[in-house]
Design brief:
alpha+beta; 7 strands; Immunoglobulin-like; 2 domains
Length: 123
């Protein structure tokens, strides 16, 4: 896990270097997307041992199922890659995502004190 964090840190340093010296033209939205993905990946690495998650991923059925050891309600927030919130619901086990178009999203699931952030791919 430490090795993965070091790789992510070096990736961020690389992106910041290119952004600072404008070697490759980047828009602010693209830069923020990279930062959001970096922190979501870092959070996912830190939360690997948690029993909170969802399946299937990638999804093509229009529904995801939230897994947990408790029966508490879960607050689920879904963001697009630009960081805009596209869906927020409180569910117990099943979330309908048929309204979302195919693409890559960031899913944040909160249950009590536990919070997990993962990447979601919709086909």
């Amino acid at each position: 896990m430490i090795y993965s964090i070091l790789i992510l840190a070096s990736y961020l340093k690389f992106v910041l270097y290119f952004y600072k010296y404008q070697i490759v033209p980047m828009t602010k939205n693209y830069f923020y997307t990279i930062l959001l993905t970096f922190f979501a990946s870092l959070t996912a690495l830190a939360q690997e041992g948690k029993d909170l998650g969802f399946y299937p991923n990638p999804v093509s059925t229009g529904k995801i199922f939230i897994t947990s050891k408790t029966a508490m309600d879960k607050d689920v927030t879904i963001f697009n890659v630009l960081g805009k919130q596209v869906l927020q619901q409180t569910v117990s086990k099943e979330l309908n995502i048929a309204s979302l178009s195919p693409g890559v999203y960031i899913v944040k699931i909160r249950e009590g004190e536990a919070t997990v952030t993962r990447k979601l791919i919709i086909k």
